[in-house]
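Researcher: Please predict.
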Amino acid sequence: MRVCGLLTRLAGMTSKITRINPEQLHETPGYHHVTVVEVGRTAYLAGQCPLDRNGSLVGSGSVEVQVDQVVVNALAALKAVNAQPQHVVRSVIYVRSDDREVLGIAWRRLTASALGPAFSSASTLLGVAQLGFAGQLVEVDLTVALPD
């Protein structure tokens, strides 16, 4: 079993997050099959959409531009609960496409971004037929183990 442990120290408190890839399961492109959290509080972020502060869709027709806005929004949401990307313990990425190349573009752009460490935990990437806003191509749903 391959184990990647992270001991996080913020505000003088210690939280333990352990990420595991059991040997019996396939290799992954960066995420872990299992994330174990030994903390008392979690935050469940609403799906972060490619909307600007005024609620307007950003990057119509561009997965890349929409991913960049989702990253900005997710980082702001994490900051609001005094968390960082490495505190994310579960992510679900929704991409409005059935094209594996488009899904790969979204995955690579997310994992290369400032939010990238969030996707080293248990992560799921889904191609979907529709998202909530007209023209929306990407949404990211995050679960966070809050530092004390």
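Model: Residues 2-14 have pLDDT under 50 and may be disordered.
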